[in-house]
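I need you to check the entry underneath: sequence plus fold tokens. Let me know what the token row says about the fold.

>
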Amino acid sequence: MSTLLPSPLPNVPSEKWTAFVRVMLTAPIASVGPSNELGAFALMPRRLVDLGVLKKLKRTKSKSSQRTIWAAATTEDHERATSFLMSLSLQMRIFIQSMKDYYSSLEKDGLKLPPNMTTSGALSILHKAGPSGLKGERFPATQKLFEKANGIF
């Protein structure tokens, strides 16, 4: 990605936003991960429901990883997920919407981050683990992403 991306976040320069997006692009465009995370930004199905991309999920057992995962519960949602996987521009729009939402909640709630955690680090954790990920231990993949994203802004 050699293009500078305009930052959708207040007080975050485009150069920093672009660096953050590079870190957060963790998978191929049409990938489905072992926990059923979808697309280039590895968005979780429950987050896609929060953002209005999917409507209804069901718990099921992954055939490949044997994990219990959230998956599309209806044919319509399965078709939406498939369309989402085929469009990097849609994935980018939804990722931006998600980051703006998390950024706003950090600002609105006046959340005091630990001294070693920057906003970009907090956003990476929220992206991977949701609000509960800001406290306590993290899965290794979440910690690794945090270490890459922390300090960008």
About this structure: Strands lie at 57-61, 68-72. Helices lie at 14-24, 45-50, 75-86, 88-108, 119-129, 140-149.
